[in-house]
Amino acid sequence: MSEKILVIGVGQFGKSVALELSRMGADVTALDSDEERVAAVQGVVSRAVIGDGTDQRVLESLDLPSFNMCVDAIGEESLEASIICAALVGQFGGQRIVARVVGETHGRILSALGVSELIHPESDSARAFAERVMAPGVKSLLNLEEGARLAELELPEAWVGKTLQNLGLRARYGVNVVALRRAPVSGSPPDFVPSPAPDEPLVRGEVMLILGKTDSMDRFLQEISS
Asked: How many domains does the chain have?
């Protein structure tokens, strides 16, 4: 079953997020009060709705608990509207609320309202965000120079006890595990392990830092999200 995602606000960034998520197979509902913006995503997303994201009647009508994720992409157009939207989405049962943030104060307010993840458009492209939320366990994606990408991935449950040699990520996808970060033990800081041994069993809770060319990383992320 595909992820069911609501994107509220389809300005430049919100539109890009909605289209990228749709491209990756998500069931996307896009909401905006601007008819032209809604028309621009009509036929690409699963459902495009004209409505105000700060109107509780509109949000109630969408059955927010039925969505796996609600994205408040209103952002800098109106910080007040962004904050009101986030508060109402939480009030009416949004399960996982993600919001575009503009500035430190805006971010603190959204976090206090229960927003689970903040998007910083200046460093988090719509494509990177879409890939991160669609690929389970991906904590972050960083585009590097010369067409390379670095992914931070929570160890999938199916990989626990296996070795990097068993997984064969380099041979299968052309990506390399360059480091592991292990959870702290007894209050100690996380253990950072560069160039992990290929024959050492992987442990639940580890985070993998994976490096690869952009096209190789795209194939890898698509595979683990399917």
From this structure: 2
Name the packing angle between helices 214-225 and 126-134 (round to 10°): 40
Q: Model confidence at 185, in pLDDT bands (50, 70, 90)? A: low
User: In this structure, are residues 38 and 29 in contact, taking their beta carbons and an 8 Å threshold?
Assistant: no
Cite the DSSP H helix spans in the chain. 12-23, 35-41, 56-61, 79-91, 104-112, 126-134, 164-167, 169-173, 214-225
- Asked whether residue 70 falls in the same domain as residue 154, the answer is no
Q: What is the gyration radius of the CA atoms in the chain, in angstroms? A: 19
Residue 87 is part of a domain; what is its CATH number?
Answer: 3.40.50.720
CA atoms within 13 A on the CB side of 8: 32
pTM, 2 dp: 0.70
CB 119 within 8 A of CB 99: yes
Asked if the structure places residue 186 within a domain, the reply is yes
* Residue 155 three-state SS: coil
C-alpha to C-alpha distance for 8 and 11, rounded to whole angstroms:
9
Tokens of 130: 């879409």
pLDDT digit string, tens, across residues 1-30: 578 999 999 999 999 999 999 988 899 999
Final residue of a structural domain among 75, 96, 124: 124
Give me the pLDDT at residue 123, please.
61
Across the range 141-160, mean pLDDT stands at 84
d(CA 153, CA 180): 10
